[in-house]
Fold this sequence. Notes:
The protein is rod-shaped. With 591 residues, it is of the alpha/beta class. It folds into 4 domains: 3-142, Response regulator (Rossmann fold), CATH 3.40.50.2300; 230-347, Beta-Lactamase, CATH 3.30.450; 351-434; 439-591, Histidine kinase-like ATPase, C-terminal domain (Heat Shock Protein 90). Helices cover 49% and strands 20% of the residues. The protein has 20 helices and 19 strands.
Amino acid sequence: xxxxxxxxxxxxxxxxxxxxxxxxxxxxxxxxxxxxxxxxxxxxxxxxxxxxxxxxxxxxxxxxxxxxxxxxxxxxxxxxxxxxxxxxxxxxxxxxxxxxxxxxxxxxxxxxxxxxxxxxxxxxxxxxxxxxxxxxxxxxxxxxxxxxxxxxxxxxxxxxxxxxxxxxxxxxxxxxxxxxxxxxxxxxxxxxxxxxxxxxxxxxxxxxxxxxxxxxxxxxxxxxxxxxxxxxxxxxxxxxxxxxxxxxxxxxxxxxxxxxxxxxxxxxxxxxxxxxxxxxxxxxxxxxxxxxxxxxxxxxxxxxxxxxxxxxxxxxxxxxxxxxxxxxxxxxxxxxxxxxxxxxxxxxxxxxxxxxxxxxxxxxxxxxxxxxxxxxxxxxxxxxxxxxxxxxxxxxxxxxxxxxxxxxxxxxxxxxxxxxxxxxxxxxxxxxxxxxxxxxxxxxxxxxxxxxxxxxxxxxxxxxxxxxxxxxxxxxxxxxxxxxxxxxxxxxxxxxxxxxxxxxxxxxxxxxxxxxxxxxxxxxxxxxxxxxxxxxxxxxxxxxxxxxxxxxxxxxxxxxxxxxxxxxxxxxxxxxxxxxxxxxxxxxxxx
Length: 591
């Protein structure tokens, strides 16, 4: 037995084998880097020995052993491979090999194996781990891969090593449809849903060399879908999520999809889902073409910049619209290089329905509020007109009589004027609060607006015999963005409140402006003294006056909130001052 053929995919390894074999007296009849070429050399040279590795292209080592054993029953075959797991060794033995030597050993063992095979003996590792891992036949039959045929094991190994279906067909010299059939059998027998599951099983039983796996993962059997090898430990975690999550290559093909995606699509649509890109996948979920293109563009941009992204997407299923959020984030390898993208969709229909309900409720509330404001204004006008007539009649009667201030008619005239003034303020405050949503800001000089309101109030409250003392300090109040009409109503109500509480004759009105960053100015408007009014300066209040004052204060606070501010009452114990605090956007100075 002296003629030998070498079949090994690595040129350096072939050269080393040639040197050793020739040194041992063998005649090297031919060398092959591919399985089909090895079979051709066997038919041409009819050697006594075939030395081969398992990683052969165009028909892998196991297939070569199986075919060579059928075609040349007396041919001795010695396997030399780095894939030295128990399952691979057992597979070689079953296929018809005479011996197996690991590439991790030295050439002395290889030479001993050559001599043993030449003498008609077999040479396989006899260590006990091999029997524990693969086992013996009985133990192997109970393992997941024990149910697989030798051809199915070959296809599984190719899949685990990253080969595409068309490449596997070429390697095994079979057609693609046959390989697809084997792949379907593997999925069914091993009870997994994708090539990722097949890869995990192949790795668990060490059917493929870890060092040789492609850095970006393995390819799906379809030939189009790479599967992720760097993150198998997170698959179980992703399967527990109640929404769809997938892992994709940078060109958008799915390499892993969790159970939610499987159940949402069903087996047939999921098969189509795995074979197409992101845009086509979105269409499968019912997304329209423009949205699908937006999702694809966002994904491409995010992968190019290695950043996360999110987009709202509307899909239609069964005639119903579904609102979802599509998101993605980069996954980097140990070197910091982004190789995959993780992403998915989660349904926000519940939140969307809630928001629609809130919008509708808000619209109804605003409509009702505007109706109440109109009613208040109309009914207030109905009351104001006869009240004004009564005040005018009492005024004329008092003038004709030339009555003194303590005359009953003069007193009734004064009290009716106060009541009318309070009614008008309450009406304006209530109407303004009913329409608090209507924010109509424009640029104005806050000092001028304040002076104008103070002057009008002074004239309207002449019967109270008070004088407002204005003081302006700080910078920034000359040009602000404000709903000046609402501010004027609030200020008039606060001035009236201060006037009826204190009859000292002089009420300070101080406006302090403080510039701050972000284009804002803080305003503090203080009305009334910080001290409590003297007992003799306090006006008598009826129970009705007290209730009206409380209602007025509540309405003033709401008005302040509508102006994006707050209202504070009392600077100390019993103090009469009220302080309005606003934070307003600054505008350019008004010429």
